[in-house]
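User: Could you check the structure of this?
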Amino acid sequence: MSDEGNIITDLGLEGPVPNGADTLPSAGIISQYIKDLSVENPNAPESFQWTDAPQIDVQFNIGARQLSDEISEIELKIALKSVAQQGTAFIVDLSYCGLVGMRNLDDASKHAFTYAEAPRILFPFARHVIAEAVRDAGFPPLLLEPIDFNGIYLQQLAAQQGEGEAAPAGNA
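Assistant: Sure, the predicted structure tokens are below.
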């Protein structure tokens, strides 16, 4: 008696088993890496003697580059600058990237994963790189506050939709 064409009932599946069809949506980080890191300590060793509290300016940006139909490079750029009354103590520029695989996702889900979820996953690792770079520059490690990438994404999405609704429909 042949087993070909039998219905698998032990697993609760009814009907023939699909032959390698991968139709479930999936997304995840394939790998992550430092693409570029710059650390400047322009006023050392004098800056180690400064006693006033510095102002820390942190800027971040998210970029994406499609490498193939299913793989994108997500780039989390973080730039920070520590400035005291006497001058700049240190500058750190980091470009931290992740290769992301996405399959069987609609465009809205791909966009959300690219600009909200992937940066959320990458950020703790980028945060660690920055803390170590600042420490290696001779200063106490700088631990960046967590960033709510999903909240920022939703705000920007709402703002873009609001702009679209506020645009005039035609000429008067």
